[in-house]
Design brief:
The chain is of the alpha/beta class. It is 26% helix and 15% strand.
Length: 404
């Protein structure tokens, strides 16, 4: 059973510097609380009290909260509206998804003359014929019921039906009480049978959990309590086994940034996209950092053979195949996209050799055209000879011997 303790309330009052005497808003939702206690003595200045998603079966110990304006006890095990008459300033009451079957118990809210909003959605009483008309007449101070505005015409129509309507609702309440008593017995037997079927299995056996969560059950307070206890027991066993549910598994592979020989690894823990360009004289890393991430959460470290960017504790590291000039490296971030550009000049940049330019055919034609055309006879013997070759001496035909 989870109790409301001073330590729990102080933990929830961090916004008020842990002072509970002047606390005006308190949220104790999803704590598996099974009883309302101590709040009326310790926090008398409360204006907002949130107790949804617990296991509270009864409204009690709230009569000292004279300044309370909003009370939320949705998704609990409440079956009757009671003990709220002393809440003079109460304006909004949320009882969504409880087990209220006694609709006539809403008449206890007549003394709360400041009450303007009431939520009963998801309770068995909302299935009664004439439910809305009955509540409208029983609580004339209401302005909204289940989120819907109450008009003057609604009140006039409900006033005509109210005398006969109340008798019918009292009969439906009696039937609901009989069904509820039978349900308690039936659910208790089902719980005992289920526990007997898995009694021989260890608590940490997966079959035990599978059998429990796969069984069919009725929607009632007993079932919700059993489910909460089973979940709480599983958490306690996990904690006793030395495993912290709020922290990652210690057996998880540890982060390694370097090999044993000192060579840096490349890794991308934040899983961000990036572009890497290898230019002749520099490396460029375009890291797609999240657009709305504050720059103070990003750290950049450029070393001779690697660059490391830490984003909210997660490491992005890239190994470089050439050494860089760390003192000349720069880092800039775009205010529009949030991307980060890291420019790293190489220590030994590559030589850039301009390719030889060849004359295009169009250029040759233009040069010929500019020459003005052919002039005089053409020596066909020198056509095949290259311009760079030396000219051969001319042969004297008189010195050539006659053919035999």
């Amino acid at each position: 059973m989870v109790r409301i303790t001073e330590q729990l309330i102080r933990k929830k009052s961090e916004h008020n510097e842990l002072i509970i005497g002047t606390l005006e808003e308190l949220s104790l939702h999803q704590e598996d609380i099974e009883r309302i206690e101590h709040i009326g003595h310790w926090c008398r200045e409360l204006k907002i009290l949130l107790l949804q998603s617990n296991l509270i079966p009864r409204l009690e110990n709230l009569n000292r909260l004279k300044k309370l304006e909003y009370l939320n006890v949705a998704i609990n095990n409440i079956e009757r509206i009671e003990n709220l008459e002393a809440l003079e300033a109460l304006q909004k009451l949320d009882l969504t998804l409880n087990f209220i079957g006694e609709l006539t118990s809403v008449e206890s809210l007549r003394a709360n003359y400041n009450l303007r909003e009431l939520f009963l959605t998801g309770n068995p009483c909302t299935d009664y014929p004439g439910y809305r008309e009955y509540v409208i007449i029983a609580l004339p101070q209401l302005a909204h019921l289940d989120g819907k505005e109450i008009t003057r015409s609604d009140r006039l129509l409900a006033a005509k039906q109210f005398p006969a309507l109340r008798e019918r609702i009292v009969q439906l309440e009696a039937l609901h009480k009989i069904e509820r008593d039978e349900q308690r017995v039936r659910v208790q037997q089902s719980i005992e049978e289920q526990e007997a079927s898995v009694r021989d299995l260890p608590d940490d056996d997966e079959r035990r959990a599978t059998t429990f969560w796969q069984q069919k059950s009725e929607h009632c307070p007993e079932t919700r309590i059993q489910m909460a206890k089973f979940s709480r027991r599983a958490k306690e066993q996990a904690a006793a086994g030395g495993k912290n549910l709020d922290q990652p598994d210690e057996r998880k592979r540890t982060r390694r940034l370097f090999a044993e020989c000192g060579r840096p690894y490349s890794l991308n823990e934040p899983r961000v996209n990036f572009e890497f360009r290898d230019e002749p004289d520099r490396f460029e890393l375009d890291l797609h950092v999240y657009k709305y991430l504050d720059t103070s959460l990003v750290e950049v470290d450029a070393q001779p053979n690697y660059v490391r960017v830490t984003i909210k504790g997660k490491v992005f590291q890239l190994a470089l195949k050439q050494d860089i000039q760390t003192d000349r490296s720069t880092c800039q971030r775009s205010q529009t996209t949030g991307h980060m550009l890291i420019v790293m000049p190489k220590l030994n940049p590559e030589r850039i050799v301009a390719p030889a330019q060849e004359k295009r055919p169009s250029q040759v034609n233009q040069s010929q055209a500019s020459g003005g055309g052919l002039k005089g006879p053409v020596d066909i013997r020198s056509i095949c000879g290259g311009s760079s070759q030396t000219k051969q001496p001319r042969i004297n035909e008189d010195e050539i011997p006659d053919l035999i």
